Amino acid sequence: MSTTQANKIEIIKAPTTKINEVDFENLNFGSVFTDHLFECDFKNGEWQNPTIKPYAPFMMDPSSRVFHYGQAIFEGMKAYKDDNNDIWLFRPDENIKRFNSSAVRMAMPEVPEQLFTEGLNQLLKLDEAWIKKGLGNTLYIRPFMIATGFGVVANPSDEYKFMIILSPAKAYYSGEVKVLIAEHFSRAANGGIGAAKTAGNYAGQFYPTSLANKEGFQQVIWTDDATHTKLEEAGTMNVFFRINDTLVTAPTSERILDGVTRKSLIDMAKREGIAIEERSVLVSELIEGIKDGSLKEIFGAGTAAVVSPIKGFAYKEEYFELPKIEDSIALQLKEKLTNMQHKLTEDPFGWTVKI
Ligand SMILES: *Cc1c(COP(=O)(O)O)cnc(C)c1O
């Protein structure tokens, strides 16, 4: 792995700030960006010129490899500010590790952990005014890497750009969503790229999801590509089922993204004494669970929404609705996790990291 002097980040400050134009109470997720970004280029086999500079469009050659062959990976993280104005990240090492395993899968260079961390921390400090205090206020962090190499020859690029951009976000409650269980389309396959956080996985989901939207479903629950009988992910989130008082989620695999929220909820449940199983859940089990009343909850888990409750699902033209419950485990875990992330309660796991 090549390295660079991560401590020599050049900083070019924006002459003015856009922050006064932003209505922090009414933010649409991922649509407003802070004053600065972090950038570093991979050229001649090494990462060079790490720079923090004003957020702005930039020029690229039309033949850049990312436009043609989709070498593009990203991460999603959040920063939080506590009552003492300290800035916190949640398990950033997990995102950096996953970013680099996505890079390996997409034949892209890894970003040295120190460069990633230094770039992110310095960027957060410069734009710290954009991180608002209080439960529900977060700064969404989007690190990404694209292939910038010249020419449409179908080979991995030899040049890349790594960037981090920041977007203030309000905690959002997705409402209770209805989902369609995939019978034909697949998100991922064995030997494929489902475990990588790469742009094409999202592009491939848009069309089947738009078909589901037309039928009144907000998301698709993805099933295994071979048999379409095992439940794997909900949209771009990992998925959990509560059967009686046991939480069940599919084990991670080549087809399932190893979500930080997923693994945190599993560890929290274990600590709380909530029964948790990592095993495949069959579509038939859900339908039986609705019929005999053992299926209590379904929810998605991911950084953006944290936990997203699902109120019903359709399978083979039939719609099944979950019973209303008072004691949602999903919402209890969500509250505990967000309180921990915002430093409102103690963090017995050592997951929160002060920058
Ligand atoms: C990002 C992502 C998740 C959630 O991962 P977190 O680390 O919890 O944000 C789940 N599934 C897919 C497909 C994803 O891209």
Automatic annotation (TrEMBL):
Function: Acts on leucine, isoleucine and valine.
Protein name: Branched-chain-amino-acid aminotransferase
Enzymatic class: transferase
Gene3D superfamilies assigned: 3.30.470.10, D-amino Acid Aminotransferase, subunit A, domain 2 (3.20.10.10)
GO terms (BP aspect): isoleucine biosynthetic process; L-leucine biosynthetic process; L-valine biosynthetic process
E.C. numbers: 2.6.1.42
Source organism per UniProt: Flavobacterium seoulense
Pfam families noted in UniProt: Aminotran_4
Family: Belongs to the class-IV pyridoxal-phosphate-dependent aminotransferase family.
